[in-house]
């Protein structure tokens, strides 16, 4: 799929996505993915950071609240408009702009760190976005990103449940098939039924890569792998919050922090 088609899909998703995410329907993000990401983020107080694929800016604002001076980009103008409106309403000093993560409009060595929350697996040329992230980082700067877990969130992933709804396992399909923008249609699962019925589903182009593809890409780009994390819930949380129970069996997300060598 062409990058322009990918951008068009995200622009079409952006209005409902923003409204639903801000209503709290992106429960995996709010209850698990973002808290885990920040728990493993180094101290960013006083640093210059770039958020790649910022969406409506919820996680970007958390970076700014942690003391960083943040610039953020997204391919979809509607996401950037909503993020800028939130900035105007409660200023945190964040600079937003529409841009493509695969061609970043910033000079070499501009940032101390970069983040990409759940956006890299949505880009057709991950080698380019990784090379661009490395280029705009200062020497010894880091990139921390989250993606759908390459092993357990393959295209067509299904959660297997018994009749009582208890999670039995995760069905993994097509792990080895390299993604080329196959569209996945879905809504945030936590949205109320009447709200789901009222909106068109998101159309999300996927560019699935295997675990070894990701590791080899990072190494080939010249990053040093520093930290990995696979968020999941314990048995007690799985019982208390059934929505997240699949992540007791296997992780839905993979977090990585990689660093640009000094030379
Ligand atoms: C799953 S959303 C995540 C949004 C946000 N980071 C968050 O955590 O809520 C993926 C985001 O990546 C953006 N995106 C996709 N392709 C992009 C590209 N080539 N350059 C910049 N952003 C892109 C989409 O517009 C969307 O906002």
Pick out its properties.
two-stranded antiparallel ribbon; globular; 9 helices; Rossmann fold; alpha/beta; 11 strands; 263 residues; binds S-adenosylmethionine
What are the SSEs and their pairings?
Blueprint: H1 3-22, H2 27-39, E1 48-52, H3 58-65, E2 69-74, H4 77-89, E3 95-98, E4 111-117, H5 126-136, E5 137-148, E6 158-161, E7 167-171, E8 182-186, H6 193-198, E9 202-206, H7 211-221, E10 224-229, H8 235-240, H9 246-249, E11 253-259
Parallel strand pairs: 1-2, 1-4, 2-3, 4-5
Antiparallel strand pairs: 5-11, 6-7, 8-9, 10-11
Helix pairs in contact: 1-4
EC number: 2.1.1.-
Keywords: Methyltransferase, Transferase
GO molecular function: methyltransferase activity
How would you sum up this structure in a few lines?
By secondary structure, the protein is an alpha/beta fold. It has helices spanning 3-22, 27-39, 58-65, 77-89, 126-136, 193-198, 211-221, 235-240, 246-249; strands at residues 48-52, 69-74, 95-98, 111-117, 137-148, 158-161, 167-171, 182-186, 202-206, 224-229, 253-259.
Structural features, described:
This is Class I SAM-dependent methyltransferase. Its EC number is 2.1.1.-. One of its GO terms (molecular function) is methyltransferase activity. This protein is of the alpha/beta class. The protein has one domain: 3-Layer(aba) Sandwich (Rossmann fold). 35% of the residues lie in helices and 25% in strands. It has nine helices and eleven strands. It has helices at residues 3-22, 27-39, 58-65, 77-89, 126-136, 193-198, 211-221, 235-240, 246-249; strands at 48-52, 69-74, 95-98, 111-117, 137-148, 158-161, 167-171, 182-186, 202-206, 224-229, 253-259. The strands form three sheets. A seven-stranded mixed sheet has the order 3-2-1-4-5-11-10, sandwiched between helices. Strands 6-7 form a two-stranded antiparallel sheet. Helix 1 runs parallel beside helix 4 (77-89). It is globular and about 55 Å long. S-adenosylmethionine is lined by residues 6, 10, 29, 53-55, 58-59, 73-76, 79, 100-102, 117-119, 122-123.
């Amino acid at each position: 799929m062409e990058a322009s088609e990918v951008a068009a899909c995200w622009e079409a998703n952006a209005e409902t996505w923003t409204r639903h995410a801000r209503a709290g329907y992106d429960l995996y993000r709010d209850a698990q993915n973002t808290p885990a990401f920040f728990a493993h983020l180094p101290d960013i107080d006083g640093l210059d950071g770039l958020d790649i694929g910022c969406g409506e800016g919820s996680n970007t604002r958390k970076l700014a609240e942690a003391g960083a001076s943040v610039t953020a980009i997204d391919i979809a103008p509607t996401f950037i408009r909503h993020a800028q409106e939130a900035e105007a309403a409660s200023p945190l000093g964040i600079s937003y702009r529409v841009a493509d993560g695969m061609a970043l409009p910033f000079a070499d060595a501009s940032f101390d760190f970069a983040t990409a929350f759940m956006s890299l697996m949505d880009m057709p040329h991950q080698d380019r976005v990784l090379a661009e992230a490395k280029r705009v980082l200062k020497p010894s700067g880091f990139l921390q990103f989250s993606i759908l877990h390459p092993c357990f969130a393959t295209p067509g992933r299904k959660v297997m449940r018994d009749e009582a709804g208890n999670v039995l396992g995760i069905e993994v399909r097509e792990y080895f098939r390299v993604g080329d923008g196959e569209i996945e249609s879905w809504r945030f699962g936590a949205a109320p039924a009447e709200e789901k019925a009222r909106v068109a589903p998101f159309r999300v182009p996927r560019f699935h890569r295997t675990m070894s593809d990701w590791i080899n890409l990072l190494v080939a780009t010249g990053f040093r792998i520093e930290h990995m994390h696979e968020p999941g819930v314990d048995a007690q949380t799985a019982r208390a919050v059934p929505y997240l129970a699949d992540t007791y069996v296997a992780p839905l997300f993979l977090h990585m922090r990689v660093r640009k060598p000094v030379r």
